[in-house]
Amino acid sequence: MTSTGFDIFAEFGLDPRPDAELTRDEIISRNLKVVDWHFHSENPHEVEKAVALYADDIVWEAPSRGLVMRDAGEVLEAYRNIFRTMAYRKTISLRRFATEDFVFDDQIAWAKVVGDPAQMPGMPFPQGTEVCARLVHCFQMKDGRISREIAYEVWREADSDIAHDDVPDGSAVQVFSGLPD
């Protein structure tokens, strides 16, 4: 069952009022919570909730893979294809900050290509490859909804000469267990 905007706001404890009724600090706080819940729900079992946080006029882009989508159903299928293709092993959250209109998120993800990479247009590595990716997102926000998501993906083979990042002390690490080899 797909969640409605009101249901998803209630489920995640988000203020459903429009930006015009909130203070600057309330808008920024809500924007950060929306993106946090969006990422939390980006998994095969809850991805519909991640997509329910989109505005009706969503634009979803992955420039390094040449993708632009303007339909939440199309984005939902793209996420499902990502989950069919990639098994995420670990993420490190490097930094996240927001304004009234944007949330910026910078992280590193380690994953294995477990499915057919053709399901994920522009995936540069074959099945079986361990990869690490620098994932930088720019979310445009309006009234507590994501109106544009731009995912800048820098795919690299794990442990390769170019798979190096400067990780700030105290960065949050999330390890996913029970994944296929």
Write up what this structure looks like.
- This protein is α+β, with helices and mostly antiparallel strands.
- Helix content is 25%, strand content 37%.
- The protein has a 7-stranded mixed sheet with strand order 2-1-6-5-4-3-7.
- A hairpin with a 3-residue loop joins strand 3 (86-98) and strand 4 (102-113).
- It is globular, with a radius of gyration of 16 Å.
- The model has no long low-confidence stretch (mean pLDDT 94).
Biggest β-sheet: strands ordered side by side in the sheet: 2-1-6-5-4-3-7
Rg from Cα: 16 Å
In which range does the helix fraction lie? 10-25%
**How many strands?**
7
Mean pLDDT: 94
Number of helices: 4
Q: Structural class, from helix and strand content?
A: alpha+beta
Percentage of residues in strands: 35-45%
Largest sheet: 7 strands, mixed
What are the segments in which pLDDT stays under 50 over at least 5 consecutive residues? none
How widely separated are the two ends? Answer: 31 Å
Shape: globular
Helix and strand sequence: HHHEEHEEEEE
Concise overview:
It contains 4 helices and 7 strands. With 181 residues, the chain is an alpha+beta fold. The model has no long low-confidence stretch (mean pLDDT 94).
What descriptors fit this protein?
181 residues; alpha+beta; 7-stranded mixed β-sheet; 4 helices; 25% helix
